[in-house]
Predict the 3D structure of the following.
Amino acid sequence: MQTITEIALLKAKRGIFTRREAACWVDSDGARLDALLKRAVAHDEIRRICRGLYCLADRYMRSRIHPFPLAQRIHGPSYVSLESALSYHGWIPEAVHAITSASLGRARTFTTPLGLFRFARVPQTLFFGGVDRVSMEDGESFFLATPLKALGDYVCVHRLDWRSAKPVEESLRVDRDVLAGLAGQAFDQLVPLYKSLRVRRFLSELRKDLGL
């Protein structure tokens, strides 16, 4: 077993660590560290998730890495949204194969050993408005869009000219009864946050259509 792997087994929280953390462990931030990481990756003891972020190989992990907290370590600030959030909340029936998140920066996609992670730019006046912090049993946490926020982000990213509940029901297959369960105050909170006129119009028209 490689030296860096042995140290990571002891010190890497949930089996995930950054290059900066590894540099502190071995007191090196240069060629020596790069060589240690490269050898561990070559021996399939450590996996490179993306630039500067690593995890132990599956056989050394005590539990599966949850993709939602991982998404925010891959690229941030960000929160899980769009199809991933709608699926998590049980609003859409389809399985989601990529983890989709909203971010402040340009759109980016990361193909990693642990899955596909997509980040879309959503211009807002208050980035974490309409976003909840979800705590998991193992102590991990992640930021997750509320269902209505995920819908607004979806319209923004895909530049959709939706003006009623009908396209939400037909394109995303969201049940009308689910939409009817939304609260008017959720719309009051979200509409002013979006810089996109398209999204503000969608949310306003959706509210009217639902009679909220």
DSSP finds ten helices and nine strands in the chain.
